[in-house]
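Q: What structure does this chain adopt?
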Amino acid sequence: MTPPRTATGPAVPKKRRGGRPGGGELLAAAVGAVPGGAARPGQQQMAEAIERSITSGEHLLVQAGTGTGKSLAYLAPALTVDGPVVVSTATLALQSQLVDHDLPRLADAVEPVLGRRPTFAVLKGRHHYLCLARLDSSVEAEPEDTLFDAPRPGATKWLGEAGRLGKQMQRLRDWAEETATGDRDELDPGVDDQVWRSVSMPARECVGATRCPFGQECFAEASRARAREADIVVTNHSLLAVDMLAGRHIVPPHKLLVVDEAHELADRVSSAAQAELEPQLIDRSTRRARPLLRPEVAERLTEAGDALAVGLAEAPAGRLTAGLPPALREACTLLDGATRAALEAIGDIKADDPDPVRKQQAKAALDELSTTAQRLLEEADHDVAWVEKPENGSRRALVVAPLSVAGTLATHLYDERTVVATSATLALGGRFDTVARALGLDAPPPAPPSPAAAALAATAAAGRAGTTSPVASTDGSRAATGTVPATEGPGWTSLDVGSPFDYARQGILYVAAHLPRPSVSGLPEAAGEELLALVGALGGRTLGLFSSRRAAQQAAELLRARTDLPVLLQGEEALPLLVRRFREERESCLFGVMSLWQGVDVPGDACQLVVIDRLPFPRPDEPLAAARAAAVDAGGGSGFAAVSVPIAAVRLAQGVGRLIRATGDRGVVAVLDSRLETARGYGPFLRRSLPPFWYTTRPDVARGALERLGKS
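A:
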């Protein structure tokens, strides 16, 4: 892989005329404005490193643990850069935190120092904004294009439902008269996705402001105009990925990009580069284009959709390792020919077209189908194809995605801008090189520690072993490992600023090494008994993170049958409501699957035990992970070590991170998978990827600590 190109010039710091403030002074002002705010060494260290990157143009990876205050650490130095600075997040929760809390407070705090109030803007994809052209045409739209789509197999539509959706549409019309932004997130109460799709416009279907009769009033165009004038632009990884793949014309030009939650970026780019074919999509595109086509051309599209439905029914779910089956190949060939004929029949959009918006929508849908069919027929080595058939039978699709996006990131992420990538989980196995390579950076292979580094690590470990912990230091218990050494490569460097939390004093990492190695799906009986003992010792206050819905269900049934504790199970109520109840009901337990591993923030004594049933390796039927592992194996490496273990490390670190969310938090993380202790190959790597909790494999030590917490 070639080294990433740095910015053609460094992100230019604003000239400090007459002692103009730098990032450190702005950070001090921001921290000082927070009630009870105090300087945090890790936060200051991160801000200083970012200022150095701004000056040098060198890319930077920063691991900043929970509680560091990393948002202010990158926002303050960002205000020293001329022109927009772009901040990208993976989750709506962090985006909302930045826009609703951090940036307004920062603007208030630094205005007296800067002599002006800095500005910020949010940039989202077009489909997040109300489209006035779609709203205007929805009255006359064909039924299949609006709220009355042909239902999916097994679904029903009744008059009461249609009336409810109709009321939502009317509320949207009323809102359109008063909204200043057209941003869906500002519509309260919201509307169903089905309703919103009928009044929003995906970017590929947009005819452009100059051709649209509502171009001068376009909410999406207005958001882009605000972004071009702002000091800081907040966007999301999905839009950043689309921007890279589309030639960098969506996000405004900038010299500094901050990627927060950077461990999610590669997956979001992979999702943006993914495409799929499903019969319902072909049917919907055909009906949309039918008024513009001769009957025989439209019939070819219908035949292709029917052929795809037959091919998907015959093919088993999973990765296609031997190429497209004959029936699916025939369907893709028919679709390629039919869409080409339809696009040729529709022709170009002209200035005098009576309805350019509808015509562009039809062309965009057909063009996407054509491109995807050709991509699948190509069967390129750099792509992975699979058949998707969810267990509930809700949809069947033929999907294609890139085997790797590291090359895409190397080419498009770093070009002509300085990139700061940060997260609480960037150093896997105690090193940055794994994540660096996933982000398209050239990284050196792991090397054995020098004698000096080994001596320093031994001294640090000895010092930690003497610290007071929630449990006495006994056989089977020890302090965990510590700080991550810096790694660097061509044009980039890294930094671990640690966390203000004293993990070895605040928490225990308990691995149930005595349990049998998990071998069957669901919750093994021995693991269930261990769970009961741990939860019983504390008296609830437990977040259970499970590898499957079946295991979570079994755990909930077990506790409900043998305890009187309130057990909340993901899927039984809306997740925000479950999390609120978990915070408020002191003895409650909340059990769920992967979306809980990152999405729950419950500081305080409401969550003092986090239980993980097994190591979160990707399932064998996850097509992309399996294909990437197979490619490494074919090259003579270990696909399990290169692909599955790093995925598990990120997921495990995110799950473990649910325990300590504030300096006063105390508790235990219990991993009911003995492999974290016994697997010599990857166990140490996974443990080094976690915060440095006090570590034990003794169940009596873990239960004793929980009993003391339960009485406190």
